[in-house]
């Protein structure tokens, strides 16, 4: 399983919070790339509820990573 920014960004519009099964159903229904579906399938499923993409891929960049001292400009 590997995540890239491009693959993980496909989950931005997912119905959060969601379980692994809900994410898989949504991914198949919306036609996300096969790599995303495979990554979701490979996740360990302990029945937990994922609140956001960072719960799946902790390195996913947030808006804070892109805005540097906006008030200075």
Q: List SSEs in N-to-C order.
A: HHH
Shape estimate: globular
Broad structural category: mainly alpha
The major sheet is characterized as: none
Radius of gyration from CA coordinates? 14 Å
Domain count: the total is 1
Report the sheet-strand fraction.
under 5%
Distance between the termini: 40 Å
Helix content, binned percent: 25-40%
Poorly predicted regions are: none
Mean pLDDT: 86
The number of distinct β-strands equals 0
- Number of helices, counting only DSSP H or I runs of 4 residues or more: 3
What does this structure look like?
It is a single chain. The protein has 73 residues and is an all-alpha fold. It has one domain (5-72). It contains 3 helices and no strands. Helix 2 (20-30) runs antiparallel to helix 3 (34-42).
Short recap of the structure:
Helix content is 34%, strand content 0%. The protein is mostly helical and 73 residues long. It is globular and about 40 Å long.
What labels would you give this structure?
3 helices; mainly alpha; 73 residues; globular
Would you spell out the secondary-structure blueprint of this structure?
Elements: H1 5-9, H2 20-30, H3 34-42
Helix pairs in contact: 2-3
């Amino acid at each position: 399983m590997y995540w890239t920014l491009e693959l993980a960004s496909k989950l931005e519009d997912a119905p959060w919070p969601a379980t692994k099964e809900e994410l898989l159903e949504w991914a198949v229904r919306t036609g996300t790339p096969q790599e995303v579906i495979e990554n979701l399938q490979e996740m360990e499923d302990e029945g937990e509820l994922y609140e956001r993409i960072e719960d799946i891929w902790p390195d996913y960049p947030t808006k804070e990573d892109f805005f540097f001292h906006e008030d200075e400009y």
